[in-house]
Design a protein that fits this description.
There is one protein chain. The chain is α/β, with parallel strands linked by helices and about 250 residues long. It is about 35% helix and about 20% strand. It has seven helices and 13 strands. The two termini are about 35 Å apart. The model has no long low-confidence stretch (mean pLDDT about 95).
Length: about 250
Amino acid sequence: MWYNESVVYQIYPLGFCGAPKYNDGALNSRILKVADLAEHLVKLNVNAVYFCPVFESAAHGYDTSDFSKIDARLGTNEDFKFVCNKLHEDGIRVILDGVFNHVGRDFFAFKDVMEKKWESPFKDWFNISFDGDSPYNDGFWYEGWEGHYELVKLNLDNPEVKKHLFDRIGEWIDNFGIDGLRLDVAYMLNRQFMKELRSFCLGKNPGFFLAGEMIHGNYSDIVNPEMLHSATNYECFKGIYSSFNS
């Protein structure tokens, strides 16, 4: 497959494009800067670009508020489609960051829970207890990613959550022609979710690439014929880094 022989170039678009730290809602087509980079990437023999988060968020991108909309600080969906088309024309595939473990507090379903509490139809989209409270004094406790309560953990066992995410991924494949996903914090993602994700994505595109963020542990837990094709290897990176610098 193409991903076994590819040089992948990583871009954190909010930083690379000079976006402000916090989203003020002002639209700016900064993402078009990447299209200007395409010729340089070809000269570097780059075969794929992995984009860190590009979808609407309040701050750093991993606090997603809308999976269907490119971050206003980067531009519009049409702007990003133009960039993807340009990269594809130059023989460069596109991999997006799949941030599916958690969302930001501005995510529509969580905002509904904050407003309606136990009467919200979205309360089961998250791991919530109405017997406690959060650091934000929401009147209920919820699970945040590793204790970070600005990142609200999704309940990936919930069929409605999976449908929402798979529908958005389908749109990314259809509208942007993406070729793969890198799954954020894959080491703690629901394993059944990853199996269903693989089936869905390969059903859309048999050559679709799935990689996962793995910090430590047994890599074969998630890299196998039922789940992901590859994973990040931070332990290997640390060893290489230290061997050169110590």
